[in-house]
Write the structure tokens for this entry.
Amino acid sequence: MKNLILTLIFTLAIQFTNIIAQEKNESISNLVSTLKQKVLLNDDQTSSIEKVLTELVSKSKTVEDKIPLIQDAQKKVESYLDRKQKMKYDIIKNEWWKQVSALL
């Protein structure tokens, strides 16, 4: 009986962890989709920026001071943009990065 309860608790914990991870992945996809629509990203830029955000979320779990990670991610994201996209990005970047920071 005791083992059954422990197994049930362990299974529920794993499911809960999977649900949280899936929600974060969906949030990342939504953020990248928003950026794609506002800045007009191509498919390569979209996938690269999605990888940057996924990496940011993953690394942010292991550190307390997330500011350097966010700054590095911002530089990487901006490096994928051309001049015209950068001008559009500059208009929305503060609000967009607030949403990204909320995931961390």
Summary: Residues 28-103 form one domain. The mean pLDDT is 89.
